[in-house]
Amino acid sequence: YNLNLIATAPSVEYRITTKGGEQLVIDNPSELPDMGDVEEIAEPMLRISVLSPTEYTGPIMELCQQRRGSLHKMEYLSPERVDLVYDIPLAEVVTDFFDQLKSRTQGYASLDYEASGYQVSKLVKVDVLLNSQPVDAFSMIVHNDKAYDYGRRMAEKLQELIPRQLFDVPIQAAIGGRIIARETVRAKRKDVLAKCYGGDISRKRKLLDRQKKGKKRMKSIGQVEVPQEAFVAALKLDD
Hints:
Blueprint: E1 14-18, E2 23-26, E3 38-53, H1 57-66, E4 70-78, E5 81-89, H2 97-104, E6 110-121, E7 123-130, E8 133-134, E9 140-143, H3 144-161, E10 169-175, E11 178-185, H4 201-221, H5 228-234
Antiparallel strand pairs: 1-2, 1-3, 3-5, 3-6, 4-5, 7-8, 7-9, 7-10, 10-11
């Protein structure tokens, strides 16, 4: 249908309680009120059951702990088979949890799950800014302990994928007004002295100054083009 589509990360519904006592339900990071007005954020939880050969118990437990899971029960159904039951945030499962589980168990593990209500967690919103402009598609609500790592990896990934412009493009990850990570896509360099023959240093300096002023104007009004690959890569930061 000749449509231009933008792929973004899947999201879940969060329940927000403001300091004024207002109750909000949001499913998009851009809808989150200013953190100074937020009393608490509750996220949806799952109780998952992972059936697996016992030889993969260690890798499964490591994965669940990385995804903020807490062990509820571990039961050996036989000497060769174990049932691991975890309480884990839905946000940690909706992206690539099942893919990672299959990878770490060579496809032998099975996953069952059920909703288990909401739990208050220490969550923050990480914004990503390109050329000082926020890009909502890259914003994410994450646990405070994972915020710096998410921001750093996102900035590094975008630096790899965004094409060079005619001006420097700063990539920043921020929590509120605090920058937690930064990378820069360096500008293309054009040799403005290529046709300037001879040794007239004042003319060369004028050309370089004019180029510098032109780049500054371009940066102030320039829109950064973000390739589709960058949006897809944002979904696969763990790869």
